[in-house]
Amino acid sequence: MATVHLRIGDLVWGKLGRYPPWPGKVVSPPKDLKKPRGKKCFFVKFFGTEDHAWIKVEQLKPYHPHKEEMIKINKGKRFQQAVDAVEEYLKKAKGKDQTHSDDKSKSDKGRKAAKPMKIIEEDDEDAFKGGSSDKPASSMEPITKRLKIIEEDTRSTSIQAADSTAINGSITPTDKRIGFLGLGLMGSGVVSNLLKMGHVVTVWNRTAEKCDLFIQEGARLGRTPAEVVSMCDITFSCVSDPKAARDLVLGPSGVLQGIRPGKCYVEMSTVDPETITELSQVITSRGGRFLEAPVSGSQQLSNDGMLVIVAAGDRSVYEDCSSCFQAMGKTSFFIAGEAGNAARMMLILNMVQGSFMATIAEGLTLAQATGQSQQTFLDILCHGQMASTFVDQKCQNILQGNFKPDYYLKHIQKDLRLAISMGDSVNHPTPMAAAANEVYKRAKALDQSDNDMSAVYRAYIH
Length: 462
Prior knowledge:
Blueprint: E1 3-6, E2 11-14, E3 22-26, E4 41-46, E5 52-56, E6 60-62, H1 67-73, H2 77-99, H3 101-107, E7 117-118, E8 147-152, E9 157-163, E10 178-181, H4 185-196, E11 201-204, H5 212-216, E12 220-221, H6 225-231, E13 234-237, H7 242-250, H8 255-258, E14 264-267, H9 273-285, E15 289-292, E16 295-296, H10 299-303, E17 307-313, H11 315-320, H12 322-328, E18 329-335, H13 341-369, H14 374-381, H15 389-400, H16 409-425, H17 431-445
Parallel strand pairs: 10-11, 10-13, 11-12, 13-14, 14-15, 17-18
Antiparallel strand pairs: 1-7, 2-3, 2-6, 3-4, 4-5, 8-9, 9-18, 15-17, 16-17
Helix pairs in contact: 13-15, 13-16, 13-17, 14-15, 16-17
């Protein structure tokens, strides 16, 4: 049997699918976790994340010999944080070695050198036993299977979160035929990742030219929404607002005309719960199966396959969509209860995000108005409790005057409006969201609708 010179505890660079090499550590897998069939691989816990996975041996490199090479080719805040975490780990390990060097030297006398770890074969399940006791911070089930249940007593709504395997490139695509309607900022990235992960996809877009790139990548073309639905087992849609979602289903040559018993329709647009309820009723009235699955993220996260999917409705459809959600997102949540619950959750999430973005813009402009450095404000912010990739990227774009859309300003304003209306329907005050909504409306009046949501900054300087 071939061997590689790796042991449990060794630091490595692991290549996960289409993602750049990431620093990690070879660890013991849980006893009940079997190695993927037919693969020669090691179980790796990655630094700077809670992820761990079986990695093929050809996708692994020793950490130290390749460190400079990897740092040169990989950029980004998360990557640097992961490298920093490795260095901190090494520093602590070195400190322990120095403290116990005398004891260790005595205990090592006469002890045989550790054997290189074998490549694990199908019948070699005990090869990891007896190694380091190091275990990932979270449960050591494979990324595809880690689940957590949260019970919300107030609404009797359970949430199930399943981490994606898109990052490790080991998705087994469903054999069901997939349709996708709407190739905007979010939909384009989703379709691209579905195709990359081996799904059979038929596409349609109101502006037909947008389909051309995906046809070149292997997608099939549907002439109408009805034709896509009739050709496919599961059809997703992702459009701009409630009117567009209704027109797509109820309009001429719409989705409803293609629905037959057993056909699945998944609404990914961020719309109000009332629209979801209406669409669910008309789809199921024809024998179709309905799931809502709006996404949290941006164009970049969509392109990277790192969206967060929030689903509700027919649980069996959610399970049938498993490989699709793994391809397009890093995590998916299923919210039990009636269709519309996912829409409610997504509107609340986007309300918070939109209000936060407006507050950041307000802070930047107040810093400028009082003679403070905006860059210093950002530097301080990114070293405090509110530090995040979102804050860093949006603020840097503002300071550079770059408002290329990653999430349209008009769409976040639409989400704020719908969230405020939802609050009104249950007599719940939303004064912060209402104030932010007014700032976005001013930005729209300044012709910023088709810019990124961070262009709300311009509402404060004009």
